[in-house]
Amino acid sequence: MKITLVTETFPPEINGVAMTLEKLALGLSRLGHQVSVIRPRQKEEPEPRPEFAEIPVAGIALPGYSELNMGLPVFHKIDELWRESRPDAVYLATEGPLGIAALLVALVRGILPVSGFHTNFHEYMRHYKLQWMEQIAEQYLRTVHNSTWRTFGPSRDLLGRLEEAGFRNLRLLERGVDTTLFTPERRSEELRKSWGAPPDSPVFLTVGRVASEKNMQLLFRAWEKIRTQRPDARLVIVGDGPERKALEKAWPDALFAGARRGDDLAAHYASADFFLFPSITETFGNVVTEALASGLVVLAFDYAAPGKFIQHEENGFIVPFKNEEAFLTVADCLTPSDQDWSAMREAARETGLQLSWEAVLERFVKDLREAIAQQKADGLQQI
Question: Taking every annotated instance into account, which residue ranges of this chain make up the domain Glycosyl transferase family (predicted)?
């Protein structure tokens, strides 16, 4: 099949959506499909890749996310592209102006549009004191996704919430993890030394955007409890975002490592011991499966990826959703120096090894073929 992905974010930008879409593009290409990616032009354009075509279009900086570009509604550009080379299906990964333009062109041309629900943008409103916009944002997202033939979400609990909110034609598109990249074998004592962590000192890691919607205040409440019990512990924060400077000033004993990619990111995972994930706004949480594959003891809330893959006290710890006191209680239990975590770490790694991207993508392709068949059966005219 010829499949086009349309997205506002793509590597080398560093975030969960960009990483997921790169895996989709690479994986679909390896399965023999012809893949193209329409995305905003980036400040530093990457080298062309042989596996798929990248088509950069005009964009502007996204307000509040200066490191990201928002695509402009380039209707004519997309229409020209698809008149020259018509895709069988278009996957809309983001709901901005570029995604809307692609959706409208696809509908006019009779090309199958499907969409992915990657980010709970409507829930972000409350974290930026814009609660009055939450319902407006949800209605907008519902309208966009219900205009496509399928909306894919990464977890069953998310699909359940979307169904209750009136989203239709929902399908599961889970996330795999690269277990050759994310592995305990990448543990580096040299990196730990650079953090000031001797072999017997616990290192607590979190990975993600350093922003209000990631529940950073709970992370540091947990860190206060941990360092009281274990003054030799270290907290490493991988990622960047609008709150980084303020938090670095407020918490000088925490190590802010900035954004990391590839082998460097994998080494940061493997060189830690525990993974704290306080976020309550995820659609999935790729970083959780990366932490499991790296053999870390994970503490998270019971939803999305943690709820699906973590068995409490077997391969990690999960606490009731939004129960911050429970999160803090378990964080306090991670500090004893005489606790042997090796069995839990091995169980975490085994969980990661079961998460294959190939199986995920084969199910996705099957869903696309079914949607195309339904579109033809409904007699949709192509232009």
Answer: 189-348
